[in-house]
Amino acid sequence: MAGGAVSIKNVDKYFGDFHVLKNINLEIKENEFFSILGPSGCGKTTLLRIIAGLEEVDSGDVLLDGESIVHLPPNKRPVNTIFQNYALFPHLTVYENIAFPLRLKKLSESEIKERVGWLLNLVRLEEHAKKKPHQLSGGQKQRVSLARALANEPRVLLLDEPVSALDAKLRQELLIELDNLHDKVGITFIYVTHDQAEAISISDHVAVMNNGEIVQYGTPFEIYESPANSFVATFIGETNLMKGDVVDLPSENYVVVEFPLLGRIVCYRDKPVNVGDTVLVTLRPEKIRITHNRPTFIDSTPVNILHGKVDEAIYMGYQTKYFIRTDGGYILRVYKQHASYLLDEKIIQWKDEVFLFWNPDDSFIVEVERS
Amino acid sequence: MKKTSAINEGYRKYGLVYLLWLFVFFVIPVFSILTYSFLSRDYMGGVVFKFSLQGYKDVFVKSYLVVFFRTVLLSILAAAISIVLAIPVAYYISNHRWKNFLLLLVIIPFWTNSLIRIYAWIFVLGNNGLINQFLLRIGLVKTYIQFMYNNFAVVLILVYTYLPFAILPLFSSIERLEKQLFEAAMDLGCTKRQVFFKVLLPNIKQGIISAFVFVFIPSIGTYAVPELVGGKNSRMVGNEIARQLTVAKNWPAAAAISSILLIITIVAVLVFMYGGERRETR
């Protein structure tokens, strides 16, 4: 199999008066694992259906390896879809479901047998070949639909929230399986999800969508570490999003922001700002260190230090989520990873007085409102 | 456990009442028809309580076999045409925003007496009916076309009368189907035609069987339709039963025809139910 590159050019789509997709442009490279991530109703599934041919565009173009496929019906596109509810044919066995697209192509019985056998092996369902869909578990059904979609040797596989109907543990397993499958079959995967953890864990590139627009495009690392705006910052992972005013510009890289209830904090200056601007600053909870004793620093790296009290401590096993009320009264989220829980000098508990500190690079500006 | 058995006990009581009702109004009449068919004829009407096979002998003649054959054929035709018409209608309704309202529209004709609805067709199809008047007015024909009093009219009115019985079971089986199956089929390479034959039809097989049985059974026993819109050569079994009973005063023969009709019906239902069942559990 060989994957195809998909380009989406200036695609617009309306449902009645509702502008579902607003001038979408995307370049998806061949053989990559690409995710379209966004909250429900953002238009991500519509975009996927447009690539599949199940929905028509109002304007714009969809190209596969440089050739327009926008006017081809779904059965003429070298693209196959994994549906959220599996969409297995209830009247056919697992074997016949996978053989379905091959029979349409009028392949010989021996060719079909060989190909279906290979696919059953790929998704590890050999012993279930004779079962009907209603006899399978959710994870097995999804693996059948994977095998069926791959039977046609598509250039691009579209996955519409393929694991969202499964329970958490199974979801993790199937994600890893999808990743392995992607490496094995070597075609382009376009994966639509509302779950940021899924998207950033398996994708080469992610497009974040909101209200019918692509708000950010990048690698999972870029999207998590430098969100383009406050929507991306809060949608991907968890964060402390704080609003304050710029009061000083001490150096080329840093800016001092005055936050209500928090006071003055040194933030990273990755956007042009002036004194007096109102800014939104994001600070990931896991970037904040938390200790009982006031930290001491040898070098002169600027560090933000705050003092507060534990308002809430939620023990999660692998980490504890602390809600710290600072002396000013602001509640900050701080996540402490338990690399060696029992070896920590003293476990931080509810009502403890604590110090918080973090590198100013980790608190950075995501949005600027000009004064 | 105790609670459920108490509920079961209650159901059993109601079940008993229903069984009694069935016995008095269904089992006894059917049994008496079967009995009458083996009794002797009283020429004034009614029967003489003496065993005889004359009723069946009277019926097993060529003219009656033709009627039986015609009845089964017209009923199959009506059922088949109903299904062909009902599938697109049921599909359309199941995809419509106002499906409940549309279903109500399907059922509304039942609020009117069927005889009146059959008479209404005479105004449409008759020699001075709407269609003929229209055709004469625009000059398409010189003289009226005979739509009425033939097999065409019988099948047409049967389909008209029993079409809702085909739409309803087909609707419920199409409604149950996940619409994404059709998209998946297109995605995997089906043309629209192939989606219909390879995905829709096999998945609504149970609905098709039900629709067939629901139209076939009332059609095979119909009396009013051929009586009102049929001609000499479109008499059906129901009309023969009535004639034996009222005109010929041959009650054993009427009972014999009824018994044969009963057997044909049972066989037909079993064939369809069993045929569908076996495929389903394959």
Automatic annotation (TrEMBL), chain A:
Molecular function as annotated in GO: ABC-type putrescine transporter activity; ATP binding; ATP hydrolysis activity
Keywords: ATP-binding, Cell membrane, Membrane, Nucleotide-binding, Translocase, Transport
Every ABC transporter domain range: 6-236
Coiled coil: none
CDD domains per record: ABC_PotA_N (cd03300)
Pfam families, A to Z: ABC_tran, TOBE_2
Gene Ontology annotations for the cellular component aspect, listed alphabetically: ATP-binding cassette (ABC) transporter complex
Catalytic activity: ATP + H2O + polyamine-[polyamine-binding protein]Side 1 = ADP + phosphate + polyamineSide 2 + [polyamine-binding protein]Side 1
Single GO biological process annotation from the record: quaternary ammonium group transport
UniProt superkingdom: Bacteria
UniProt EC number: 7.6.2.11
Keyword Magnesium: no
EC supergroup of this enzyme: translocase
Quaternary context: The complex is composed of two ATP-binding proteins (PotA), two transmembrane proteins (PotB and PotC) and a solute-binding protein (PotD).
Function: Part of the ABC transporter complex PotABCD involved in spermidine/putrescine import. Responsible for energy coupling to the transport system.
Family: Belongs to the ABC transporter superfamily. Spermidine/putrescine importer (TC 3.A.1.11.1) family.
Name of the protein this chain belongs to: Spermidine/putrescine import ATP-binding protein PotA
Originating species: Fervidobacterium thailandense
From TrEMBL, chain B:
Highest rank taxon of the organism: Bacteria
Compartments, record wording: Cell membrane
Transmembrane segments: 16-39, 67-94, 101-124, 144-171, 253-274
Listed GO biological process terms: transmembrane transport
Keywords, alphabetical: Cell membrane, Membrane, Transmembrane, Transmembrane helix, Transport
Domain called ABC transmembrane type-1: residue spans: 68-272
Chief location category: membrane
Record bears the keyword Transmembrane helix: yes
Pfam family of the protein (one): BPD_transp_1
Transport listed as a keyword: yes
Membrane topology summary: Multi-pass membrane protein
GO cellular component, one term: plasma membrane
InterPro entries given in the database record: MetI-like, MetI-like_sf
Annotated PANTHER family: INNER MEMBRANE ABC TRANSPORTER PERMEASE PROTEIN YDCU-RELATED, INNER MEMBRANE ABC TRANSPORTER PERMEASE PROTEIN YDCU-RELATED-RELATED
Protein family (similarity comment): Belongs to the binding-protein-dependent transport system permease family. CysTW subfamily.
Name listed for the protein in its UniProt record: ABC transporter permease
